[in-house]
Amino acid sequence: MDERGPLLLIVDDEPQLCRYLRTILSNQKYRVMDAGSAREGESLAASHKPDLILLDLGLPDMDGMCLTKKLREWYRGPIIVISARGQESDKIQALDFGANDYLTKPFGTGELLARIRVALRQNRSENSDGSEPFFAWANVHVNLAAREVQLDGVVVHLTPNEFNLLSILVRHAGKVLTHRQLLHEVWGGQPGAQPHYLRVYMAQLRHKLEKDPARPRHLLTELGVGYRLKVD
Amino acid sequence: MNLQEEEARKNRARLKIFFGAAPGVGKTYAMLLETQKLMLEGAEVVAGVVETHGRAETNALTCGLEYLPKKTLPYRGIFLEEFDLEAALKRKPKLILMDELAHTNVQGSLHAKRWQDVWDLLDASIDVFTTVNVQHLETLRDVVAQITGIAVKETIPDTILQRADEIELVDIPVEELQERLSEGKVYVPEQARHAIDRFFRKGNLLALRELALRRTAELVDADMRRYMSSQGITHTWAAGARLLVCVGPGPDSANLVRATKRMAESMGAPWIAAYVETIRHWRYSEKERAQLEENLRLAERLGGETVVLQGDLSLTDDLVALAHARNVTRIIVGKTRRPRWMDFFCGSIIGDLVRKSGDIQIHIISSEETKEPSEGDTKTKTPIAVPQRSFRYSWTHFIWSASVVLIATGIAGLLDRRLGFQMADTAMIYVLAILIVAAQMGLWPSVLASLMSILAFDFFFVPPLHAFAVNDFRHLGTFAVMFAVGIVIGNLTERLRAQMKLARTREHRTLALLKLSGDLVRSAGSAPLIESAVCNVATQFQAKVAIFLPDEHGRLKSTTPEAGAIFKQDELAVAQWAFDHHEAAGLSTDTLPGAKALHLPLTGSKSVLGVMAILPEGVPRWAEPDQRFLLEAFANQTALAVERVSLAEQRIQAQRQADREQLRNALLSSVSHDLRTPLSGITGATSALLGDSEDLSKDAKRDLLETIHENGLQLQRLVTNLLDITKLESGSLTVKKDWIPMEEVVGSALNRLETFLQGREVRVELPSGLPLVPMDPVLMEQVLVNLLENAHKYSPLTQPVEIKGWATEHLFTLCIADKGPGIPEGEEERIFEKLVRLERGERKPGAGLGLAICKGIVQAHGGWIQASNRPTGGAQFLVGIPLEGRAPSIPTEDVDG
What is the C-alpha to C-alpha distance for residues B104 and B115, in angstroms, rounded to an integer? Predict the structure, then answer.
């Protein structure tokens, strides 16, 4: 980590967007580089080792998903994918290939900065390798070690699958987890595990932990992609 | 002639004919002389065919002339050179020389005759110079044959002479011509030497020269008349003169047709050749029927209209009726060859006609039979096997006939002996026997019965008994009566039978046509229509049938794969010719008669729509005129039906196009408005911020920034909607269904609309225990977002928006309700149409696409969407999604695990 703030690499072929990102990110004391093509992005990433990569999926010379896959062969830092709406399958693929998060165009500045912060923090905590046993948001407290969840100080009873699901979301708080990733983590190799299992358990979790399950504040759905635990 | 015709005449390609009385008058020479003059003036001339026959003076005139290469065609083992029409059309000179107009092309050429090539050249706007002798004119063929005793094989239709813009008579005195012949200046093929000598007799030449002069004069006269009428000079002939010629099965009818043609031409009048199909038709021999068909075809070739009348009893009545119906001014009939006594008994047709015709003139023309050359006509006719239709007697008829007479004799003998019958009574028994035979078996058995009866009566009952002799001559009267009874009744039976047959044939024909038209009317769309037409014609004529329709470039394509398999490339080429020239081609026509199938153009009311190809299995069934007419009637009906369908299709296409156009325009105007409004907001606000931002207060700056933000969001929504509607319209929308809790989609939609809803209260009532719903979450979220935006836009901010969901066994229903002004009466359906924005209070931004998108998406899920007003005020939208298939189960787990 540099004294002058984390180094971000933007790979996007739209100069307008690059300029906008550069302006707001520089303002947040990030150092910014940008690349207009996948090839340029790859070489810049290799030469400068940025702390985070913002990657547009629609690049002229290479599929953004392929680039994610290639980068993931050696790059350990977080990758946030930027895509247009209606590319759900592309997003899922990028996430499955190792992207940490995604943003749908057009996105708000606040949203973008929050995602970048979360991604950098997560990366740090993963690198430090000491995952916290305690976790809290709003009125919810999770003790991963004791497998205990409290709402407003009252213990909430969760089934094993509910707890497993919650613990994975907690461990990757702020990050989008695809259906596939969640299914794999919770049900492991269990055959016949379907995406609707997830939906049902998520609904149950919301009913137990959200104030208004129809308008969740923290256990968020990324429609067609997966789920995310939003903490801040 | 009106101005347009005059104009068209001026612009079309020019045809000049060098016309002569006989070979050797110098037509080719005159043509080349004229050509040289034109070439000096710089005209582009190509020699298609020039026959100089190696003569030096003529050859000299060909210098500098470009020759079109000929094509070589194999013919009975040798190769013959022939004019290459395709090359000429490709070369497309200004003027082409085509010597010997009456020439018959080598087999395998596109056309049978050179004059057809010339016709094509003229159609392609190429001027043509050509030469022809008078004896080759179709209408003069019989006259020439009468004069010279030689039947000319190669003829040209007179229409080509009428088409000529200029006719130059190349004329030399007869003596000079004979001199030239003796000097060897006239080309004569060796094998024809003898015939030619006879041909060049002075008397012949004089007559031919007169013919040529007269013909030219007539044509000049026609030109004169045309000029007069075009200049508004009243013409000398009664307006609307029209000729009608009666055609029969005899060869003399052909001469009658030619005579009519000459007369019609000199009068400048149209003419009709009519054949009245009476019961006699069934008594004609095969040869006579073939001749009849040939006569009608001749009339067609000579430019006449042919009509086949379905005659009833009186031939003359039918003719006169036709004449009146068509405003015929003259009827031409041939001199009768019937003996007088027949007229006495059966009535004279001509006399009848004269009496009934009223003010119509009757021309009776001698139609002497000219001897046909043994080699036959210019055309080789395919042998026609017509199924024998006339009634055939078998020997059983005659045995029966004899038996009846024997029985009668027995009975008469018995009665004579027992009851003492008189001779007259006995005669009555025989008459009865004759009657029975005649009524049952027709003419010839009845003749036999009559004769046998007379003999038996004479032998057994008339004194002297047991001898073939008569004492009293009065008995001869009895015999005559017996014989007459036999003949009359037999004839009547015969007639009845023929009438029945005719009626049956007509019925069959009518039924066939009726069935076709019924089938055609019933078939919707062009494919079934073509199929039923093909099927009908195929069964009626026992042939393989295909219909070719043109593609957008006018190239014919087979409509079914089977047709493509049967009709190969060369047949398709014939079909293409028929299509391009609006004329029948192929088998039993004059163009490409070597083809295997007959190709009839399908002529609609405005244009030729396609071609019907008929490939007979065995001998063609349309050899007879009535069958040919039936076939053409079939083709016409099919053409009209094809036209009807294609017009309907065009109309639908045009309607669709117009609808699309209208939608696009509406979309464009609506979208351009909705795009410009937020954009101008953004540019205005940003320019204010960029300009004098120092002077702006903090609040003002914030206001401007909020404006930009809001406008940006609005643009975003619009673009999203546009993309969605485009996807829906283009059909590229794919629904990826999954079993999803509705709550999840509602939650996602509400989160997405967080800022948009500006803190409005949204009441969600989704009871626990609702089933999972099979749906595409992303698309369904869009439905919810649009409906919520709609509810938000059209209801006061203080009022809550409600979302409710419930499920029955097969249906999940979601209700989004607001407390706004509701939907105007009767607009509940229209509200889901594109670009419809109801006047509900103030105008709201949005292109009127949101609800259309909702409907599209819900329908893609197999569901429905309805709008209505709530009883308590405000609007509500109900979305129904079917719960198809089995909801997946979730494995239960140990709660304490």
Answer: 9
Contact B744 A221 (CB under 8 A): yes
Which amino acid, residue B305? E
Q: How confident is the model at residue B784 (pLDDT cuts 50, 70, 90)?
A: very high
Cis geometry, peptide bond prior to residue A106 (ω within 30 degrees of 0): yes
**Region B455-484 average pLDDT:** 83
Q: What is the dihedral of CA B332, B338, B344, B345, to 10 degrees?
A: -110
Collect all residues of chain B within an 8 Å Cβ-Cβ radius of residue A159: 893-895, 897
pLDDT bucket at B390, cuts 50 / 70 / 90: very low
Average pLDDT, chain B: 80
Among partner residues B712, B777, B897, which is closest to A159 by beta-carbon distance?
A: B897
Q: Which residue of A lies nearest to B721 if distances are taken between CA atoms?
A: A85
Q: How far apart are the C-alpha atoms of B128 and B288, rounded to whole Å? A: 40
- Cβ distance B475 to B459 under 8 Å? no
Long-range (24+ apart) CB contacts under 8 A made by A166-171 are A166/A142, A166/A205, A166/A209, A167/A142, A169/A219, A169/A227, A169/A228, A169/A229, A170/A135, A170/A142, A170/A144, A170/A229, A171/A131, A171/A144
CB pairs under 8 A between A and B: 72
Q: Closest Cα partner for B775 from B814, B832, B816, B826?
A: B814
Which two three-digit tokens encode residue B57? 């003076």
| C-alpha–C-alpha distance, residues B46 and B49, integer Å | 9
B890–A197: do the CB atoms touch at under 8 Å? yes
Q: What is the mean pLDDT of residues B20-42?
A: 86
pLDDT value for A131: 57
Could you report the predicted ipTM of this complex, rounded to two decimals? 0.83
Handedness of CA B183, B189, B193, B198 (dihedral sign): negative
A53: number of CA atoms within 13 Å, CB side? 31
B594 contacts: CB under 8 Å, gap ≥ 6 = B107, B108
Condensed to tens digits (0 to 9), the pLDDT of residues B157-183 reads 877 887 888 888 888 888 888 888 777
The whole-number pLDDT of residue B368 equals 56
- Under a CB-based contact definition with an 8 Å cutoff, are residues B607 and B502 in contact? no
pLDDT value of residue B387 = 38
**What are the helix (H) ranges across B692-824?**
698-730, 742-752, 777-793
CA dihedral B312, B316, B317, B321 (to 10 degrees): 110
Who among B747, B803, B894 is closest to A221 (CB)?
B747
| pLDDT at residue B343, rounded to an integer | 63
**Predicted local confidence at residue B240, as pLDDT:** 63
Please give the residue of chain B at the shortest CA–CA distance from A161.
B893
Minimum Cα–Cα distance from A147: chain B residue? B897
Q: B750, A215: Cβ pair inside 8 Å?
A: yes
Pair type for strands B243-246 and B330-334: parallel
Q: Quick one: which of B250, B259, B340, B360 has its CA closest to B304? A: B259
B778/A215 touch (CB, cutoff 8 Å), yes or no: no
Identity (one letter) of the amino acid at B175?
E
Q: Are residues A215 and B751, on separate chains, in Cβ contact within 8 Å?
A: yes
Q: Which residues of A touch B (CB under 8 A)?
A: 85-86, 88, 106, 157, 159-161, 194-197, 199-200, 202-203, 206-207, 212-216, 220-221, 223-224
Q: Which among A86, A203, A224 has CB closest to B741?
A: A203
Min Cα distance A39 → chain B (Å) is 30
CA distances from residue B827 to B822, B836, B837, B858, B870 in whole angstroms, order as listed: 10, 10, 10, 19, 15
Alpha carbon of B820: minimum distance to chain A alpha carbons (Å): 23
**Amino acid identity of B99?**
D
Pair of tokens at residue B250:
């005899």
Cβ-Cβ contacts under 8 Å, A88 against chain B = 778
Q: Do A206 and B743 touch (CB under 8 A)?
A: yes
Contact flag B743-A212 (C-beta cutoff 8 Å): no
